[in-house]
Amino acid sequence: MTNRVILLHGLWMNRLSMQSMAARLRRAGFRPEIFGYATVLGGPDAAIPRLVQRLREEPGHLLAHSLGGLVALSALQRHPELPVPRVVCLGSPLCGSAAAGGMAGRIWTAASLGRSADLLRRGCEPWSGPAEVGMIAGRAPYGLGRFVGRIEDENDGTVRVAETRLSGLADHTVIQTSHSGLLFSAEVARLAVAFLRYGRFDAGPPHRKPE
Fold first, then answer.
1. Which domains, and CATH codes, for the chain?
2. SUPFAM superfamilies of this UniProt entry (predicted)?
């Protein structure tokens, strides 16, 4: 299986936000590549064709934070033939974001979502593609949510855990970290490596059966 991993950042972020995770993946034996895209002025419609082209050139896993997860799954739903074995999403509101909906409803914040607004509010269709998709969600409520209204239920300060539970995921886990903290957590990196290798967050090397 490929050891290439393409990393996608989230809204208002850039390539630098994924450097720490890329370094951890590299130390674990993977070959990370960071995919940068304009989240506000370009948005998913500009990013998806570029991502599709990179995946057509060479197979690879995907690891995506927040909006990046929606971009990743949208690309795979449009092109299910792409050679992507596994996808790890970090705090991605795959079921749609209440925080983004709140921002879109206010004149003074709507423009900040740019061309990513529709996908963030709508989310993705239930997953049924060939790639195995895992989600790592956070439950430390420190982040954007406090500025756009109260976020109900367990959340990472920006995204509700319930918004990450898309039907069809291969695995889902919740840890004690905030939305931005998902990018810098050693525990998140460990879980991501396990999923990329074995398709489960709690998995290890398979035991050989006695002959």
1. 4-198 (3.40.50.1820)
2. alpha/beta-Hydrolases
